[in-house]
């Protein structure tokens, strides 16, 4: 009995990438390519999550001074406004 269900995926520009992998013989089917892509995405997300866990843990263990939320948000707003100006958008 099948444990998965067929789906339809519209790839757009990524269709050429899938086709190249099939033509190279590296994969026998579009399903194999998609499964490999999802496994790679899972690995990437797991790696990023681990990086974030480590950074959060290090920040929580840090003995540095606390920064008031109002200061953090003021700096974030200023940073965002500068990026908008640099990109040619009105802040």
Write the layout of secondary structure elements.
Blueprint lengths: L14 H10 L5 H32 L7 H18 L5
Structural class: mainly alpha
Q: Compute the gyration radius: what is it?
A: 22 Å
**Uncertain ranges:** none
Estimate nothing, just give the exact number of structural domains.
Answer: 1
Distance between the termini: 57 Å
The pLDDT mean sits at 93
Q: Roughly what percent helix? A: 55-70%
Q: Enumerate how many helices there are, as a single number.
A: 3
Q: Order of helices and strands, N to C?
A: HHH
The total of beta strands comes to: 0
Largest sheet: none
**Which range does the strand content fall in?**
under 5%
* Apparent shape: elongated
Characterization of this structure:
With 91 residues, the chain is an all-alpha fold. The protein has one domain. 66% of the residues lie in helices and 0% in strands. The longest helix is centred in the middle third of the chain and has 32 residues, at 30-61. It is elongated and about 55 Å long. The chain starts with 14 loop residues before the first helix and ends in a 5-residue tail after the last helix. The model has no long low-confidence stretch (mean pLDDT 93).
Outline of the structure:
The chain is an all-alpha fold and 91 residues long. It is built from 3 helices and no strands.
For this entry, give a set of tags:
91 residues; mainly alpha
């Amino acid at each position: 009995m099948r444990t998965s269900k067929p789906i339809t995926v519209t790839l757009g520009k990524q269709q050429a990438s899938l086709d190249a992998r099939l033509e190279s013989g590296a994969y026998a089917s579009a399903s194999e390519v998609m499964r490999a892509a999802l496994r790679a995405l899972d690995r990437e997300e797991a790696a990023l999550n681990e990086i974030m866990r480590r950074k959060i843990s290090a920040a929580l263990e840090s003995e540095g001074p606390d920064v008031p939320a109002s200061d953090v948000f003021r700096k974030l707003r200023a940073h965002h406004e500068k990026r908008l100006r640099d990109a040619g958008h009105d802040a």
